[in-house]
Write a structure and sequence with these properties.
Layout lengths: L2 E7 L2 E8 L8 E5 L7 H12 L3 E5 L10 H10 L2 H19 L3 E6 L1 H11 L5 E7 L17 E8 L7 H10 L4 E10 L14 H18 L1
Parallel strand pairs: 3-4, 3-5, 5-6, 6-7, 7-8
Antiparallel strand pairs: 1-2, 2-4
GO molecular function: hydrolase activity
InterPro entries: AB_hydrolase_fold, Dienelactn_hydro, Dienelactone_hydrolase-like
Protein name: Carboxymethylenebutenolidase
């Protein structure tokens, strides 16, 4: 359904996977990769957004590198240049905003969940809604005072990597009266939305409900 495109970013260009609905237009959503890279799973999620009427762009934050090995994925996550990622995400948001004519949404998974919230905190109002699927990255710091987008947080019950941060996120959002909703799915593990992972890590029922809530969030706020 989609195609690879390039867009201005960081004084140069960044590539990404762009998927459009059959109508050719719609609200824009930036889909942000897990630590594996811009793989077929993330492209498939962009395609799913397009099938629901959104214009979806998944930027390639690893610039061509994709892995299936957890050890390598962990190294790639830790080696991510946060300043460059910020610039690439700003470029993706600006590209989609110009294409669609309005504020865009951000959504990401695992590392990408952290970067979805990070992008919303650095968008100067260009991000109109944010969804964070169990996001975490030890080097990402949030500019909470710059956040204006409503935030939907989707969490797994059993996730020692991410869950200790949730009370801080909630306190920062409440302090600034940012509309938000946090949902923790009972019995789930980190990355429960990823259907390329075996069950029980992948949880079809929770993934289905989280997808429906994500679509509703973007349709409400974009």
């Amino acid at each position: 359904m989609g195609e690879m495109v390039t867009f201005p970013a960081n004084g140069g260009t960044c590539s990404g996977y762009l998927a459009k609905p059959a109508s050719g237009s719609g609200k824009g959503v930036v889909v942000i990769q897990e630590w594996w890279g811009l793989n077929d799973n993330i492209k498939g999620i962009a395609d799913r957004f397009a099938a629901e009427g959104f214009v979806a762009l998944a930027p390639d934050l690893y610039h061509g590198v994709v892995t299936k090995e957890p050890d390598e994925a962990g190294k790639l996550l830790m080696a991510l240049n946060i300043q460059r990622a910020e610039a690439d995400l700003k470029g993706a948001v600006a590209y989609l905003k110009e294409m669609t004519g309005g504020p865009v949404g951000t959504v990401g998974f695992c590392m990408g969940g952290a970067l979805s919230l990070f992008a919303a905190c650095n968008s100067d109002g260009d991000v109109g809604a944010c969804v964070d699927f169990y996001g975490g990255h030890p080097a990402v710091k949030y500019n909470w005072d710059n956040l204006t987008a409503p935030v939907l947080g989707i969490w797994a019950e059993h996730d020692d990597f991410v869950n200790p941060n949730i009370p801080t996120y909630k306190a920062e959002l409440e302090k600034r009266n940012i509309p938000h909703e946090f949902i923790t799915y009972p019995g789930t593990q980190h990355a429960f939305f990823n259907d390329e992972q075996p069950e029980p890590q992948y949880n079809p029922a929770a993934a289905k409900d989280a997808w429906e809530k994500t679509l509703a969030w973007f349709r409400k706020y974009l």
